[in-house]
Amino acid sequence: MALTIETESRIYRSLRAVSGITAHLVSLGFTIFVAVLARPGSSLFSWHPFLMSLAFSFLMTEALLVFSPESSLLRSFSRKAKVRFHWALQLLALLCALLGLAIISYNKYLNSKAHFVTWHGLTGLLTVLYASMQCIGGVALLYPKLMKNWTLAKLKVYHATSGLVGYLLGCASLMLAMCSLWFTTTVTGLSWYLSVLCPILTSLVIMNQVSNAYLYRKRIQP
Fold first, then answer.
1. What is the pTM of this model?
2. Which is nearest to 65 in space by CA: 194, 175, 201, 218?
3. What is the pLDDT of residue 211?
4. Is the distance from CB of 56 to CB of 93 less than 8 angstroms?
5. Which pLDDT belongs to residue 81?
6. Terminal CA-to-CA distance of the chain, rounded, Å?
7. How far apart are CA 83 and CA 53, in angstroms?
8. Contact 37, 49 (CB under 8 A)
9. What is the DSSP letter of 3?
10. TM spans, by residue (predicted)?
11. pLDDT at res. 147
């Protein structure tokens, strides 16, 4: 017997809730895994993978999932509270990313090594710069009157879309980091494949959330 629209909708929401919960656990688990692997404080370099995974795997993922209608940890809170929490996590993620970039740059300098010569280094630099611009652009949503030629609805759509691009850049940078000598000498076999799967899974969840909340809604509007 064919499923009713209501039943299909209920199943779809349940699947999104499960995927959202999985994203919460994966983002936290991956960050803890990298922290154990890097042992922050054991060397100057050790802070770089820890801070970057904290920024782009955990904090940024949580900052976006806060708006998920099915799996947000703040579902009972007001929209205003969610926005403030989103801002706090995004700023904290940016600070961690900037600090991680500064540490790896200084570490390269101390060891007389060239910087930004690998795909990971270039993508990481682009991601941090993009995240900085995204945070600055987010100010327009706090003070929409400054953007006289743009409606608040349009600003939200463009901010969400550009934010998704930034998040995907962060995930790509994390995946490229897992191809580095530091990571591949320690993590091999099935563990390596499972590690690579983590940012892929969270990016798929975030893409689905943003698409349903903004992009799909924009397409169906007359």
1. 0.90
2. 201
3. 87
4. yes
5. 93
6. 34
7. 23
8. yes
9. P
10. 21-38, 50-67, 87-106, 118-143, 164-184, 190-210
11. 74
d(CA 153, CA 186): 47
Distances (CA, A) of 136 to 28, 91, 129, 157, 186: 26, 10, 11, 16, 38
187: which 2 tokens? 């993590």
Give me the amino acid identity at 213: A
| 149-192 confidence digits (pLDDT tens) | 777 778 888 889 999 999 999 999 999 999 999 999 999 999 99
**Residue 23 · residue 61 · CB < 8 Å:** yes
The backbone torsions φ and ψ at residue 174, rounded to the nearest 5 degrees and listed phi first, read -65, -40
Give the single-character DSSP code of 144: G
Q: Give the contacts of 130 (CB within 8 A, at least 6 positions apart).
A: 165, 166, 169
> If you count DSSP H runs as helices and E runs as strands, how many of each does the chain have, helices first?
10, 0
Instruction: Compute the distance between CA of residue 176 and CA of residue 118 in angstroms, rounded to an integer.
Output: 9
Structure tokens at 131: 């995240």
Residue with tokens 């989103």: 86
Q: How many CB atoms lie within 10 A of CB 184?
A: 11
Whole-angstrom Cα distance, residue 138 to residue 157? 12
Count of residues for the chain? 222
- Cβ burial of 4 (10 Å; 0-12, 13-18, 19+) is exposed
DSSP-H helix ranges across 66-188: 79-110, 119-137, 139-142, 152-177, 181-184
Q: pLDDT of 32-88, one tens digit each?
A: 999 999 999 999 999 999 999 999 999 999 999 999 988 899 989 998 899 999 999
